Amino acid sequence: MKPGDSLWRIAQRFNVPVQSIIQVNGLTDSGNLVIGMDLVIPSRAETYTVKLGDSLRTIAAKFNISIATLIFLNNLRPPYPIYLGQRLIVSEDATEDKPVIETLGYYNPSSVQDKTYIIDSLGEYLTYLGIFDFPFLETGDVIGTIDAEILLVARRKNVLMMPVITNLVQGIFSPELGNIVLSDPSRRENLINNILFLLSTYDLQGVIIDIENLNPEDRDIFTSFIEDLSESLHNNNKKLILNMPPKWEEWAERDWVGFFDYNALGPLIDIAALMTYEWGWREGPPRATTPLEYVRRALDYAIENNIPPDKILMGMTLYGYDWTLPDTPQNLARAITLPEVWNLAKRYNASIKFDVEVGQPYMDYVDAAGNEHRIWFVNALSHYLKYQLVKEYDLRGVFYWILSQPLPATWYILSEMFDIKKY
User: Fold this and answer.
1) What are the pLDDT digits (tens) for 149-167?
2) Contact at 8 Å (CB) between 299 and 312?
3) How far apart are CA 253 and CA 216, in angstroms?
4) H-helix or E-strand spanning residue 390
5) Which of the chain's ends, N or C, has fewer CB atoms near its CB within 10 Å?
6) Do residues 419 and 123 lie in contact, with contact meaning Cβ atoms separated by under 8 Å?
7) pTM to 2 decimals?
8) CA distances from 196 to 146, 154, 221, 233, 234 (A)
9) What is the set of domains in the chain, with CATH numbers?
10) Rounded to the nearest 5 degrees, what angle is found at the Cα of 317, between the Cα atoms of 299 and 322?
């Protein structure tokens, strides 16, 4: 957006309905514009006016699109009413073959009021759903249950639900817990048996391991655990997804990344969910959270060290961070979504800028109390650039952290660039 732009002028320039721009980008209204914001323009937008006797099913069939796509493109809300004379966006035709990729969305039902709405809304864009969380105890027992309604909706949307196994203790990843369980053969065996039992109980196709913050000296016991778990899962025809931190050197003695032996782990797992984000983080200095150069270096290193592209899901966030300046250890950044950035820009008359080198937008503003802020965040353009990396590296796909945070344009871009694999 430049000074003087309006949605009406943009719509006229690209010959698309104003409403389609609003809906694809998740705008609340035509006046919710700020200088510097990037907008996705639906290039093949087509509309249809609802007639007597129409329903979502008949309209979807008429234009050869899914009902879910019709709901998404028009930002409809349950119970999805339509009315006579309503103008609906119905374009979803693809004129060229698109790469087929897999996608994984992480989801914590306890963080939202309507626990099935997100799955219902985004299910068509997902291959897998990683559901939080299933921590293990010192005994190797796994705690946590899956709501039957959530499981039903996931199956209806043909999304493979996978429990996320963690070493979380009161919300913090515990290296002590990880060491206690993984270093003891009987506890480790009990953990593996409990994972298999969990999958059997809910008839699930696989598991996601998200064990973090182990000490570098736990490297061998972690690899041994993954080896044993991999054998047990594959003997039962189950998938193993492993969350892995990004790195571009071995860093065997470094905290957090040191206990991940890429070369040993690569052949054992089905999918590596490579966490290519959080270089700018809550407790660190203000900087880009997903700089392209770092993402590339992480991908290059993984591929060179026994994790082939067809096993890699590249991590993508749906949020950014807002740092209060000056940067001090006490000034922790707060997570922020794209609509919140737009609201702040409008409230404080700030402009959004885009750093081409890192491939990410940022914004500076001064709040009502006179405090200076710097925000690094993600938007449609930064996600588009990440999707281009998927094509360039021929990756298996992407994963999203985390689904409860809104970034509507990414789903439109995803569906325009790729077909999503379903099992």
Assistant:
1) 999 999 999 999 999 999 9
2) yes
3) 5
4) helix 380-393
5) C
6) no
7) 0.85
8) 15, 20, 20, 7, 11
9) 7-89 (3.10.350.10), 100-318+382-420 (3.20.20.80), 324-373 (3.10.50.10)
10) 120
